[in-house]
Amino acid sequence: MTADPPLVLDIDGTLTRPEGWGIDPRVFDPIREWEAPVVIATGKAFPYPVALCHFVGIPELVVAENGGVVCTGDDVFFTADREAARAVAEEYRAAGYDLGWGEEDTVNRWRETEIAVNLEQPLEPLREIAADHGLEVIDTGYAYHVKDTDPNKGEGLETIADRVGIDLADCVAVGDSVNDVSTFEAVGRSVAVGNADELAKAAADEVLDAVHADGTLAVLERVRGS
């Protein structure tokens, strides 16, 4: 039997329960037992995927904040500056809007390079303000992310591959959103779960019927030792 291929896994929409929120605990053991490197590539704030790696028991190979932060296990790289995103948030609030996460805002408290806005908040003024600051807004299906136009998950993955010695052509990536497109373009094999948005589905080599963690678990079972 050949070795397991390296994995690149998104979190929200990919490792989540069928209802879409909360990580499905069924993914923990297969990921922990995977013999090849597993990269967690997500739009979440940096501490969240690091914590996931700790709880699962795998090395900290992380692309966080849509490529804004990259952890190779030994080194952490910041590829964007949060100050511009903070300025967008301040101007958005000054215009009478809100980020939508409550006073404590734990969604953004530990974010290093971008700002996330609740999907219930107005998008167009956010886009306009972000553009004035040279930033972009991407809709991951879980939040609007105000980010630098340059970093993306695919570039972060390339940094990890170079530092750790992963051949991206051997990698299998699973995701669900527009922010996974750059990952799909970087790897040898890409799979979109059934709940993926249209851009992710168009970029993937394969689109599943099964959604969320059900889809991801099916992929892991199929490619293990392939």
Short description:
The protein is an alpha/beta fold. It contains eight helices and eleven strands.
Please, could you describe this protein's structure?
The protein contains 8 helices and 11 strands. The radius of gyration is 17 Å and the shape is globular. Helix 3 (82-94) packs across helix 4 (124-132). It has an 8-stranded mixed sheet, with helices on both faces. A 3-stranded antiparallel sheet has the order 6-8-7, covered by helices on one side. It is an alpha/beta fold. Helix content is 33%, strand content 17%. The longest helix is centred in the middle third of the chain and has 13 residues, at 82-94. The N and C termini lie close together (7 Å).
The structure class reads alpha/beta
Q: What gross morphology would you assign?
A: globular
Task: Report the major sheet.
Answer: 8 strands, mixed
Helix count, DSSP H or I runs of 4 or more residues: 8
Order of helices and strands: EHEHEEEHEHEEHEHEHEH
Poorly predicted spans: none
Roughly what fraction of the amino acids lie in strands? 15-25%
* Distance between the first and last residues' Cα: 7 Å
Strand order of the largest sheet: 5-4-3-2-1-9-10-11
Helicity level: 25-40%
What is the average of the pLDDT values? 96
Radius of gyration: 17 Å
Secondary structure: number of strands: 11
